[in-house]
């Protein structure tokens, strides 16, 4: 059977497989990835890529339950329910990123699978790291049918920092259509990225084949454009392509005439000579004289996320590969604003202002957040699927969804959860147009926040940057291409923001460290410095989009001072509990004789130095700070414990000089009082249910904040205040900024600030409208900033 299949594939390949002339093309993301120069993987990363893949499948189901499928030897298969137990389910759920199993199912409860039944009579003790380490009859050895496919129900709680995706995928037959690309027609289009128009070609064996356009509809075009990262489709000028086809046919049908005895040039020679002189921009896309049509009919509905999910009619092996009455299918796509070359066109395209993505490392991925009543909230992942995710992706200017992520895979949000059981059909212009349920706090928690990974156009940005000299495929000295020259980057002013852009451009996740001295990395092939003065906002897609010097100017131009990065697939994300600040605020007049330790740590205003110590008092604005880590990696101080500073007065180590800034601002944004707090002790005060504490300061313990935990600084400890002794009565804005110097990398710095409206009458103080910096709409934030208005006095 296997031999006959191989024979059919070989015949198919000989009939249709034809390698096209090398040209720059827009491809699906998997093709783009092959173009990226990747360093040799480390042993640890190599073992990670070879790890057994596990997924949940079937319908109907929630994100934490389903039929178990294993990817082994290039093929997905199931597990038989014979001898299945809760111990087996526990092992599988942990492999999927859940903390444990709550049950298991038999008799194909989630539907019958297809293909192999990989394992039978599986016996786990419950402690194995992978199902492959459990006892069984061996791979592929089973006497079961798919009526006996096993399933699991996992506890709806994620393992903190779990890296692998918890994905509900399309379940399409990828063997039918592996990759899709657009091959542009004219030479000028080949040089411009992204490629938005061209002949649709599908990867077939070691070449590319075309699709016959007979019966082709705009719905098919929509699916192709979505796969390639474009939100909208455009009509194609078919007459232009028909003229090209006709011209190509005329060239092919010209008679072959040899050179005459008199030496006169024949008609063929003249034609060749003329074609060499013709403009390359007008060359035909049918350069190889003949198309090979793999697919003769496509009937998409427009809601599919992949061409392979559409009904397709393939060419039969024993028939000719012509396209009677048609030609090769051509599509034209409309790029989103981030990828638009033409600035005039950019103004016409609008993306949603009430939907956004947060917490993602790469462009086009993140936690889905929606705006309601001027406040941002999240979406619960119940029934979250690729159709709903695609609606979000397209309204934000990306293509269709590559993955619909569940279980807060892009970190947990804060604040309200607005939507549950979203059921988009796939053609809606906004997620707000889709049916959904309003929810109560009992229905969902933030550990169920939905996320997306969208298809984005191939821009080739990773081809102009590389990291070298490091010990893995995630760290090294930064080198960029300027013109035709590769070289290093000056590290003067090099910060986490610039490093974030580098890691994003390379597709390596977040920046963990911005390195300013790279002498300890291999420098045998160090190039000259080609870029300096780099200053990024942190949101750019490429380092070349950041500000930088026109000519290189670097005080420390030696190779050991070139810029470097260490990237990571995950990062922490700190957020302050704003309601708690509002609830705990009060004023205390504290005697000076009780503030010696605070003065030593510079926690009082400058006028305190002139006070008549130890007599008198200072007026302190006190409140509690509860700082949550809602990211996907633990928050740990940049400095190792060997460099922590011991403070005898308070009897503990400071792992960070400045952990938070506390400021009181007037209507003009000027500071009227300020405070700062060193990391007295970063530790896990408490955690979500099911998450264990890892960090404790006692006995010179390790400092940090675990994912799913929080560090509480109570209102009654030293330096947990702003000294407002010199502040006059009035209306102010109180601001707290965590990790203000970006000393430790986070997935999102926009939520590090918290603001409150503040009213002080000289005796009492009130806070209201306390919120995280990015929690309100732009309009609401403008209204907030206008308060307290021009008159700063209490009336």
From TrEMBL:
Residues 31-49, 268-279 have a biased composition (Low complexity). It is found in: Secreted, Extracellular space. Residues 31-50, 247-282 are annotated as: Disordered. Disulfide bonds join 80-144, 93-154, 124-134, 300-310, 380-444, 393-454, 424-434, 536-546. Gene3D superfamilies: SRCR-like domain. InterPro entries: LOX-like_protein, Lysyl_oxidase, Lysyl_oxidase_CS, SRCR, SRCR-like_dom_sf. Residues 54-155, 180-334, 355-455, 465-568 form the SRCR domain. Its EC number is 1.4.3.13. This is Lysyl oxidase homolog. It comes from Lates calcarifer.
